[in-house]
Fold:
Amino acid sequence: AQSVAQPEDQVNVAEGNPLTVKCTYSVSGNPYLFWYVQYPNRGLQFLLKYITGDNLVKGSYGFEAEFNKSQTSFHLKKPSALVSDSALYFCAVRDRYSGNTPLVFGKGTRLSVIA
Amino acid sequence: GAVVSQHPSWVICKSGTSVKIECRSLDFQATTMFWYRQFPKQSLMLMATSNEGSKATYEQGVEKDKFLINHASLTLSTLTVTSAHPEDSSFYICSASGASDEQYFGPGTRLTVT
Structure:
């Protein structure tokens, strides 16, 4: 079985400061990891994914995430937060890189960037 | 990039009526579509997986007779909530995948049952 844990319901950060949104995962096989962002009453927007290769993945809007196999983590980071980054962030995993396999989502972390 | 649309974006219906939500892949052929449900301030919960031309596979606890899913073409899947009740009020999101193994999400449909 696959699962994702996002231990923080809410993360607050001042504009211009670095931000981290935490994610840990559990899969039986190789993990394929994703981050999505959701704005109010909107669908999910893809940010980045880890399939294989370099552990540091760079994605949209200046976000990046680091895959750590030993800690089974895939934390989302950004060096300098913007107020417009305020949204709901979801980490997701699946154990196959196949479009026919559904994603398993974490509960989400609400990021609030304060000016 | 690939685009997935949903229609309607929001709908209000009376208890006991049925409502249909459409999910379309606009610029690619979607062999698989997924339907998710999201309650306020909660995560997305997978409801069912549908492959074009086949019956949908429902997750445990999801009533297939209540949530009818049809995936009759490679660009369209529909979710019909039958005999809707207030507890069915939710945000419904579809995603679609095709040859590229990527999943693309629709913008969601907010259903309110009064």
Summary: DSSP finds no helices and eleven strands in chain B.
